[in-house]
Give the backbone structure.
Amino acid sequence: QVQLVESGGGLVQAGGSLRLSCTASGSIFSINVMAWYRQAPGKQREMVAAVNSRGSTNYADSVKGRFTISRDNAKNTVYMQMSSLRPEDTAVYYCNALIATVAEPTRYFEVWGQGTLVTVSS
């Protein structure tokens, strides 16, 4: 059994910063991509940022230059530093990862965290 646990959400004023963290635990063999998605009220879930096991990153255009994703492979943890936050960044942020387990080391499963709410006030 593998799970992702997020932390770091909360309420912040526009222009402020927050740092999200997500740690994977369980019978992990390896982790490929780790990513952050978000879902605002009434909208579809969208990819915000992703980082692969070699550290290559990808960002949604709406957050480029404001958000930074990083990971600590030794801790099975992904972070996202969010700066210059805007009210439109308000959403539930979900951690996502492709994880191979000890039981099936050649197959990657998509795992989701429970989500953490980020609210940006104007």
Notes: The mean pLDDT is 97. The chain has no helices and eleven strands.
